[in-house]
Amino acid sequence: MSNQVSASVRDRALGRARYAADLVPSGAAVADVVRSPHPHARVVAVDSTEALQTPGVLGVLTPDDFAGVTIGRLIADEPPLASTARYVGDGVAAVAAVDHKSLLAGIAALRIEYEILAHATTTEQARTLSVDIHNTAPGNIASSFSCEQGDWDAAIGRVVEWAEGTFENAPVPHAYLEPRATVVRVADDHLELVTATHFPTALEEDYREIVRPWGTDLRIITPEMGGSFGAKWEHPTHLVCLAFAHRLGRDVVMVTPRRDDMIAGRGRLGMKLSVAIGADADGRLVAKRSRVESDNGAYSGHGSSVTVSAAIRADNIYRYEAVRASADLVYTNTMPSECFRGFGHPQAVFAQEQLIDELASKLGLSPAEIRRRNAVAAGDVTIHGWQIGSSGLQECIDEIETRIEAHRAAQTGAAQTGTAKSNSRFRTGYGLATCIHSISSRAYDPRFDRDDVKLTPRPDGTITINSGEVEIGCGANETLRTIVAEELGVAREILQVVFGDTEHGPYGLGNFASRTTLFAGRAAIDACRQLRRRCAEVAASLGLAETSVAEVIGAAALTDRLNELVVTGRFEPDNVVLPESSAYGNLSPAYNFAAHGCCVRVDTWTGKVVVQQYWAAHDPGHLFNPPGAHGQVIGAVTQGLGMALTEALELDPDGMVLNPGFLDDRVPTFPDAVPIEVIFIDIDDPAGPWGAKTIGEPPLIPVPACVANAIHDAVGVRLRQTPMTSERTWQALATRETMP
Amino acid sequence: MNTPSAQFEIVVNGVAHHVSSGWHSRRLLDLLRSELGLVGTKEGCSEGDCGACTVLLDGEPVVSCLTLCAMVGSRTVTTVEGLNSDHLERFAAGCERTGGVQCGFCTPGFAVMSSWLVDGGTETGDDSDAKLLEGNICRCTGYQQLAEVISSLRTISEDPTGAAP
Ligand code: FES
Ligand code: FES
What we know:
The complex is a heterodimer of chains A (740) and B (165).
Chain A: H1 7-13, E1 29-35, E2 41-47, H2 49-53, E3 57-61, E4 84-85, E5 91-97, H3 100-109, E6 111-116, H4 123-127, E7 141-149, H5 152-157, E8 161-169, E9 181-186, E10 190-195, H6 200-211, E11 217-221, H7 236-248, E12 252-255, H8 258-264, E13 270-279, E14 285-297, H9 303-312, E15 322-331, H10 345-363, H11 367-374, H12 393-416, E16 426-438, E17 451-457, E18 463-467, H13 476-488, E19 495-499, H14 516-541, H15 549-558, E20 567-571, E21 591-603, E22 609-618, H16 626-646, H17 662-665, E23 676-680, H18 703-715, E24 721-722, H19 726-735
Parallel strand pairs in A: 1-12, 8-24, 10-11, 14-15, 18-19, 22-23
Antiparallel strand pairs in A: 1-5, 2-4, 2-6, 3-5, 7-15, 8-13, 9-10, 9-12, 13-14, 16-21, 17-18, 17-20, 21-22
Chain B: E1 7-12, E2 15-20, H1 28-35, E3 54-57, E4 60-63, E5 76-78, H2 85-98, H3 107-118, H4 129-132, H5 144-158
Parallel strand pairs in B: 1-5
Antiparallel strand pairs in B: 1-2, 3-4, 3-5
The structure holds FE2/S2 (inorganic) cluster (2 copies).
One FE2/S2 (inorganic) cluster (FES) is lined by residues 43-46, 48-53, 63, 65 of chain B.
């Protein structure tokens, strides 16, 4: 490996990477949102007289300034400023000022009169609430889904054992380290929105509709993104900043303070799943029934799609013969939810993988064996119509089983020599869990799922790679450079990647579902092939024989023909379809698989669970950046352990977030890090660039299930609720009947 | 007590800056970022939880979001921009080798802490690196890689030839 450090890593390590808050133009106005202290209240009046007289205050925006405007790609239900506050923290007005001191004075001088409405902080309350949180959603149901696949009656006729249960997952904040930050720069005939987002192209499409009537246009520039994990998409603060910049004719910046960010940011959807799985006498999983109730919070984000994913995605990993699923997404007066690494799947896997362990024990099979017997394989079409192009699932399960057995044998050996940690107080146990992941989702944009990459050779011999995708810290930048360098036979050093600049960038659907490697990678390969063809043409017409791409670019620059070498490559997979309303259909060109294992030690006196060793086996296909991929797995597992053991957004009955801070939410810190071994199964996918699939999301998905299975193995209790805190584990132990 | 002068001096990365006395009652983090343009120091939480704003005061780490400029006194401030460049290059190489950088927002804080630890920061107590890094949150990487980077940097600094392992 070369000791040349890639520019993107070096910039970050040296503190040279620039995030939105680092790009504040001098003289920019500072703005902030005024948030509702009530979970549900109509804004009767906003009196800004005094605020506007406060020295240094430049302007005030109220809900009236955005009448009729809502955002939300799937369900457009969120106003930039709310005339009815729907959660504690909902923005009901905004102030801009010359500096922070005046800003705070201006906010304090604003008089807002509310009419308090009845509120619901749980989905149960919302279902019987006397008022609707949105008048478009009677009964507070934001969306509903149901489907049935296979012959249900035939399947259940063969079931000899059922396992069933109800599982709950608390909402968890994304807790990205960079708080939400937006800068708007005023240019001659347009506004420049500088902000981190997963989908600059979509942002531009949607916001342009809103700013055009103001008589201006828009350009989106995405700086570095300081973490998101699915939180940073469209956001009301963008529109507030755009409106201030337009009205004041002045650059504007808004950085959301951390506490506000954790009250009014976004979080993983809290979910309740009731699931039953039936197996036949041979240990085949034949039937599965799921019922999902998702807590949407006050606004929808991607909640409707996440909820469908929670209802069906997990079904695709095993060869079920029949499934029935239904799901409701329910509005509550709590922080809006959003997709979060795994897209509803960690919640579903938490239920499924625990029930499968129960079935295994009823049928006398090992956890590995029951999964092996039922795993889908390359060439399968799953119960929901997913076409599996490659799968390393069997290998992943084998790798984890081997490690668990070796570890167990070593522990038992230690027990015999009297040095083991397992005794009457401390119990050790092992868990196994699997997952499937769909790379991209055709359902995301009804028009298409595609990606474009543009190559622009420059007079100085360098090549700019433009992608409509974004770098979210997973290394997409280096992946594209690697592909283009290799496909064109040029040095990496001459390649520069520009992501997410809507003035120069081609189309990109957005960085989600861990799809960038596959989609942008394939588009880059297409672009390279086009460029090679163009180079050959230009070389022939200039009478050059057998020249390299770099030489042709040099010759074209001298003869003023560089524009002939500008190409845009495209990837639009032909085997994916827009799923039916039942969600049936191949929605992704490729799928990846994982199996995880862990060893936990449970303190039966306190309920404390310590993960002593963790193993994560994945089949990401070709790896463009092995250390980066390795780091993705470690990071995702650690995030998953936060969800499994400590993290939850806690609310009081009036919808106030009680723990809006990194340490109050209890994100994992350095001493919480556990030993994690990463295993990559080397199986290429026919759809991937050089066989690559992806890695970003999957390594979080099985974690809570894996830990729950290990706790059961250790002490014989089933934890059906995350986070599995010491208190919950202790309570489960206190009420259990027998120790295994 | 001295009468407040219109300006005071603060030494950052070896350079003396004269700033208006109004800064006395403001955060060091704001002085660094908005007055001196040293935006490598990040603001993640503003309340001492995350460590993204870590700088060295006379060689000891502090969170600059909870440090008033008046508290700096005659001590010198070192930000990520002022760390030893050989150290920074080795830190960057370590991050590349281990996958220790993702979004990078926490990374300048870890760069500062790594420099302190490698310069003997642990010798004052019995605490492990993990304990000493408890105040630096990384939501992306999961820490294992950063622990590896720091221990390999320590090996390099103890090796008089300075050769990388
Ligand atoms: S910003 Fe100072 S500790 Fe987080
Ligand atoms: S790399 Fe993103 S927070 Fe550490």
